[in-house]
Amino acid sequence: MKDYFKYFDKLTFVLLLLLALIGIFLIYSAGFPLQEANYLKQAAFLLFSLVVFFIVFSLKVDFIFRNAFIVYMAILFVLALQIFIGRTVAGTKSWFRMGSMGLQFSEFIKIPLAILLAKAMTRFELIKWKVFFKLIILIAMPVFLIVMQPDLGVSFILCSFIPVVILLKKIKPLVLIVSFLLLIMCGVIGWNSSLLKDYQKNRIISFMNPAKYKTSTGYQIIQSRIAIGSGGLNGKGYLKGSQSQYQFLPARHTDFIVSVIGEELGFISTAILFFIFFVVFYRQFKFKFQSDEEFYFIYLFNGLIIFQFLINVAMAIGFFPVLGISLPFVSYGGSSLLSFFIGEAIIFRIKINSYLT
Amino acid sequence: MYPNKRKLSGEYIKKTAIVAIGILITIFLGIFAAFWHIQIVNNEYFRRLAMQNITRSIELTAPRGLIMDSSGVILAENKINFTLYLVRENVVDMEKTLCLASFFTVKKADTIRRIIARYKKYPQFYRIPIKNSLARGTVIFIESRQEEFPEFEIGIEPTRTYPLGNCAANVLGYISEISEAELSSKEWHGYGLGDFIGRSGIEKQYEPYLQGMKGSQIVIKDNLGKIQKVQSVVNPVKGATVVLTLDLELQKFIEGLFVDQSGAVGVVDLQTGGILAMVSKPDFNPEIFSQEMEMEQWLALSNDPQKPLQNKFLQGIYSPGSVFKIIMALAGLQEKIIGLATVVHCSGSQNFYGREFHCWNPNGHGAMDIFSALQNSCNIFFYNLGQRLDIDTIASYARFMGLGNESGIDMPNENTGLVPSSAWKMQAFRKRWFPGETISVAIGHGSLNVTPVQMLKMIATVALRGRMPHLHLMQRIERQGEKIAEFTPEFTQVPIATENFQVVVEGLFRVVNYEGTGRAAKIEGLDICGKTGTSQIIAKENPKYKTLTKEKRFMPNSWFVSFAPKVNPRLAMVVLVENGGDAGAIAAPLAAQIYKKYFANERLF
Asked: Which 3 state secondary structure label does DSSP give A207?
């Protein structure tokens, strides 16, 4: 037990906790004009997530990896079930209501998918056609089900696994070219089919030309940029941001939480927040491990968090379309918080194992 | 624990970590740079946009200044009125909004569309007034469901009201909304669409004083356009109060004398030149202009043959008829063409330049001197005088007495009338003046035209024996109890000898008191001097004269100019009844009633 404490990555854990607390602090401000109690829910989620974190941390990595496929299939089943019987909340069926708290199952697929990909990656060096199709099927099944929810954000995030796999492995040039063409084809088909809803298309169109869509989705980008830009060096003060408090800023507690800190607390505080993220990410790449699949898992899962972080921040300053992607650990959303803490628990366990044996 | 599971080489792991950390550093440097650029470099720009998002400036209409009579009775004030505004930036679906607006205002959607189109150049957050005097029920309905109609706002605005209705309507004038054409001219700098301006009367004359100063309010609004708080207020400054010389009691009394006749009356205080009453009949209710007027209402007013919107006292032009004999007498005496001993024999008619000219009395007046000629208004005496005075001399005396020019009273849109002269005829008709025309002018006919205010100024000058008063309606202007302007009486001397005025005054005294044409104006105890004038609409020489004059509209206009008392005169007056017929019977008794009313309090009788 003493060793557990000694080798536990205390700094990273404290920083993660800090991120979540900053999140609650910002969610309070975001909900302030309408007196929403989201911050209390998020605090409850955080407590729950910490409990789950330590439960997962106490499990053997081997046990988790062995059961990943069952979990993966179970989640796919739930997702498929939701499409048929799921209740529609805010236009999407991705929320599965459990009491007063909804669970977004699509968030949880990240972990078993990363594990399955990591396991698969131990079995090949070069991505050939056979491997390629195996990987595609593994990723495409959840992506497809989540797009059907429809939740563009999470399905887009899952696709971030592909470049990580390609970067860690070698790939046949022909496969790369074909997969690239396939990607474009998917995009074109997706665009023209009814799979993408009009509002989702609008988000992408309005990203190209936000001024033209002042009242619709381009509006969100414009207001977010105004919020961040008007914050300046020191910000307008906590609970004093006009963009947040007079509700010009949309989705303040989720997608645009960065805009809240940017406006109310300014560049210095925003930079500190980013620096915390940087330290967390940096520390996750310096680790010891006992099997290759653990190595791959850590890279895949960290890649996903970094990707999600980057997309969210880029979206807030108008460098990326609004796809409904939240800021890891900070944005409001219990399922997202929980899934990230589960993932981190596995990573923490992997890192500590090499010291204990 | 995991014996054979680790196969990756240490070099590979190291290389991968370096690449990953390299990518990580690049990403973060990019993000820091992007945030630096947007938050620090462009901070001012975004700060301004954020302010524009939340702050809105609302214009606060200044209440117009009051108009009072000399005793402080309010003639024009403001009442609270609910105005419906439309804010374009809060409109989601214009067609739906137009439909709602049409429902609230009982106007056609196209009408509202036109109103909105006029404000094209105004910012999207500008509050466009689409209806004033909104029904109270509509106000409550919209206010209670403000969340549903964010594009509509209700404002409390002052509107002009005239508590005495039609009373003194033509003195006060009216106000109406400024037009786009006017806004583009320099004259109306500082005004905006939706503002009201004085169109006539005192409202127009003293517009700069009455107008007041607009205020403004800066409010903080949320994204739904709901006002969160008021950041700063600059209160509007109410316009200045204009106090008139008008004696409301007298004004009302005179207005009451006109039942269905049209005409004009003016009464001046000879001590100051201040107008005590100015009546123009028929009149109108100026308040209908402060509200939105129906087309039919406007057409009915502007097409009325009796011209209620015209201030006949200042704008009506008429032949002065026999009233002009006063000026003829003054000219004759001053030019020494006649004297007190001059006698002309009137036999009812006389031939001048080969044409027969008639006296109004076909039997003739017999031997007439200047006093009896005025007393009986003998045409033959003045024909002879006219023959011996040339038209240009007559014209210059007419001008001395204020004819052919604006009286200079503090009212807009005054007419000048016309004083004919040989130069005028040459210019207007390219023809020489015929001496025969002078004969007609000598009794106030021909091309001669005057306004009632000119006649009032003329008779006032006679009363003051050559001191011509400057007529005025404004007594003083006050802003917050402080006097900012005041009228001081002004008199100018007419180049006619005082003794000649004394002769004419004696003649005018006889008109009323020696069984003259104005005997109906006689009052025991008050020495009234006056002169009647019955000016024909159509010439007596017209073969149809007898039949046509039975029609009301061809009946002659009745004049009575007068002043009282004879010595130290205090009041001068002009009464004109359009198509009244015989002046002695119509206009003179009206004057008597007005004098009685005015002097009643002084127990002269």
From this structure: helix
DSSP B472: B
- Is the pLDDT at B2 greater than 50? The verdict is no
Confidence of residue A197 (pLDDT cuts 50, 70, 90): low
Beta carbons of A248 and B53 less than 8 Å apart:
yes
Instruction: Transcribe B92-118 into DSSP letters.
Output: S-HHHHHHHHHHHHT--HHHHHHHHHH
Within a 10 A sphere around the Cβ of B331, how many other Cβ atoms? Answer: 25
A276 is written with which tokens? 């915390």
What percentage of chain B has pLDDT greater than the value 70? 97
ipTM of predicted complex: 0.91
CA B185, CA A136: separation in Å to the nearest integer? 73
Beta bridge partners of B483: B478
CATH number, span B56-244 = 3.90.1310.10
The runs of H, that is alpha helices, within B464-581 are 498-513, 545-548
Shortest CA distance from B49: residue in chain A: A226
Q: Are A78 and A105 contacting, i.e. CB atoms less than 8 angstroms apart?
A: yes
DSSP string, B316-370: --B--GGGGHHHHHHHHHHTTSS-TT--EEE-SEEEETTEEEE-SSTT--EEE-H
The whole-number average pLDDT for the span A57-83 is 91
**Confidence at A300, pLDDT banded by 50, 70, 90:** very high
Minimum mean pLDDT range among A122-126, B29-33, B208-212, B504-508: A122-126
> What percent of chain A has pLDDT above 70?
87
Q: Angle between the A61-85 and A334-356 helix axes, to the nearest 10 degrees?
A: 170
Q: Tell the residue number behind the tokens 């053997």, with chain if given.
A: A60
Is B222 close to A229, i.e. CB distance below 8 A? no
Report the distance separating Cα A161 and Cα A116, nearest Å.
11
Residues of A in contact with B43 (CB under 8 A): 229-233
- A25-28 contact pairs (CB < 8 A, 24+): A26/A253, A26/A257, A26/A260, A26/A261, A26/A330, A27/A253, A27/A257, A27/A332
State the Cα–Cα distance between residues B77 and B66, nearest whole angstrom. Answer: 5
CB atoms within 10 A of CB A60: 11
Query: How many domains are there within chain A?
Result: 1
Minimal CA separation from B192 to chain A, in Å: 29
Which residues of chain A does B228 touch, with a Cβ-Cβ cutoff of 8 Å?
Answer: 246
Q: In B, residues 75-104, which contact A (CB 8 Å cutoff)?
A: 92
Nearest to B485 by CA among B496, B473, B471, B497: B473
pLDDT at position A97:
47
- 3-class DSSP assignment, residue B475: strand
| Residue extents of the structural domains in chain B | 56-244, 248-284+309-474+488-602
Strands B241-244 and B67-68: parallel
pLDDT at A98 over 60: no
What's the rounded Cα separation, in Å, for the pair B483 and B465? 33
Q: Residue A46: pLDDT above 80?
A: yes
User: Is residue B240 pLDDT above 50, yes or no?
Assistant: yes
Phi, psi angles (nearest 5°) of residue A9: -75, 80
pLDDT at residue A100, rounded to an integer: 41
CB-based contact A282 B5, cutoff 8 Å: no
CATH class of the domain at B248-284+309-474+488-602: alpha beta
Least-confidence region, from B4-8, B42-46, B245-249, B497-501? B4-8
* Distance from the Cα of residue B397 to its chain's centroid: 30
Q: Which of A226, A289, A302 sits opposite B50 (nearest CB)?
A: A226
CA distances from A48 to A43, A44, A96 (A): 9, 6, 17
**CA angle, B362 then B368 then B371, to 5°:** 120
Would the pLDDT of B392 be above 90? Answer: yes
Contact yes or no for B501/B541 (Cβ under 8 A): no
Range of the domain at A30: 2-356
